[in-house]
Amino acid sequence: MAKGLQVRGAWGLLAFCCCSAVSFVLRNENERPIIGILAQETFENFQKFGSSYIAASYVKFIESAGARVIPVRLNRSNEEYDEIFRSINGILFPGGGVDLETSEFSRVAKIFYTKALEANDREDYFPIWGTCLGHELLTYLTSGENLLVRTNTNGFTMPLNFTQASNHSKMFQDFPEEIYELLASEPVSSHFHFWSLSMQNYTKNEKLRNFYKILTTNFHNVEFISTMEAYRYPIYGVQWHPEKNPFEWKNSTGIPHSSASIKVTFFLANFLVNEARKSNHHFSSKKAEADALIYNFNPLYTGTFSSFDQVYFFD
User: Fold this and answer.
1) Known catalytic residues?
2) Alpha-carbon distances of 78 from 52, 111, 114, 189, rounded to whole Å
3) pLDDT tens sequence across 129-182
């Protein structure tokens, strides 16, 4: 590893163990963060259980770092989405398989994406995280175009190829050297996607170039973007699946369960939740909060007929 990365990694370990708590106190840390997860339309095997779903692994991913979750359900009124946005401290767009341009998932994501840009412009901190399809959706929402190319990267584990921009990223700057090296040298990132944003298409698109810095890439048929973050906004995208490593048990070589891969997952979850701690949004009442939490729903075991072990379904 380069000398600069060693220094950054050493500082990251110190910051994680000692200094982070101080900085959060100075920021009036929100000790009860709640993150929304956007539901999406069910596919054929799931339709008998409900019209939309959220895989439970995303819920566990967030809860593992000390936040709670509410489901952001589809086909709600603009007034309800306004109220949800004022109440939550960030939103996660999960992986899946619906259309980037025509799905209800995409329509509702655009509502929260637009609200997040407006809020952050007035210094009202609100993070967005996109995983796999959610990452791809962010590129569509930013550019207004579907620029994905076919990569058939389904069921692979890979190390990440870090760019120089990662040295100055929010996502990785406080990672301990050990975790950074694991990501760079070991196949601990889980890839389950057929489409990707190529570096070529990113480079040719001015809107994407000006909005996102590229933190990691991978190569499979073409060089594609695997991790990115916005320059001006707390918006982050990963083409890979950190939530699968500890929480999905499909018998696949594409899901690593090593102790190293688990460490990677929890440092990323910790980063996302700490971003949500910077938001001061809150529910109008304790009852409204309690009624919205995902605890009001029961996940169904789906491991025998799907790639997810547990799923929350909604009407």
Assistant:
1) 132, 241
2) 18, 9, 13, 36
3) 999 999 999 999 999 999 999 998 999 999 999 999 998 999 998 889 899 899
Report the alpha-carbon distance of residue 111 to residue 87 in Å, rounded.
15
Within 13 Å, how many C-alpha atoms sit on residue 58's CB side?
28
Nearest-angstrom CA–CA distance, 168 and 229: 11
Residue 111 has pLDDT above 80, yes or no: yes
Task: Give the tokens for residue 52.
Answer: 């939309």
pTM: 0.91
Q: How far apart are CA 48 and CA 27, in angstroms?
A: 46
Q: How far apart are CA 10 and CA 115, in angstroms?
A: 37
Distance CA 84, CA 146 (A): 28
Return the pLDDT at 107: 98
- Using alpha carbons only, how large is the chain's radius of gyration in Å? 18
Q: Which residue has the tokens 């906004």?
A: 233
pLDDT for the residue 27:
53
Cβ neighbours around 72 below 10 Å, total:
27
- In this structure, the number of other CB atoms found within 10 A of the CB of residue 231 comes to 11
Q: Which fold has domain 35-314?
A: Rossmann fold (3.40.50)
What's the Cα-to-Cα distance from 256 to each of 189, 190, 203, rounded to whole Å?
Answer: 8, 7, 31
Amino acid at site 221 = N
Owner of token pair 């207004």: 144
